[in-house]
Amino acid sequence: MPSAATVYASSSVVDSARRAQEQNTNKLLGRALQVCKERKVEAETLISDGDPKEMICQAVEQIHPDLVVVGSRGLSKFRRAFLGSVSDYVAHHARCPVLIARPRK
C-alpha cells in the first residue's frame, strides 16, 4: 500500500507566507474600501481566521450590517452540491440581506 507524501514547512516559512497573505488581503480590501468611498457607500471590512461560512455569519451577528456582499466562484451545480458554497450558506443563514456577486463572463 503506498504511503501518502507528507510535507513539513518550517515555522519561518509558514510565518512568511501568512504575512504575505495578510499584506495581499489588506491591499485588496483597501482598494475595495476606496471604491466604496468614491461611490459614497459606507463599508466596513473584517479579517477573521476560520471557516468563512461561519465567520461571515458570526460577523453579521456582531456588526448588524445592512447588507453583506459575497463573491461567487461560479461552481457548477454538482461541485457546489459536493463542496458546498460559502455564498449559498451565507445567503441562507445570515440574518441580513446578502448580495452574491457572480464573476463576469
TrEMBL record:
Return the SUPFAM superfamilies for the record: Adenine nucleotide alpha hydrolases-like
> Pfam families this protein is in?
Usp
Task: Give start-end ranges for the coiled-coil region(s).
Answer: none
Task: Domain (UspA): give its ranges.
Answer: 9-102
Highest taxon of source: Eukaryota
Q: What is this protein called?
A: UspA domain-containing protein
Q: Which organism is it from?
A: Asparagus officinalis
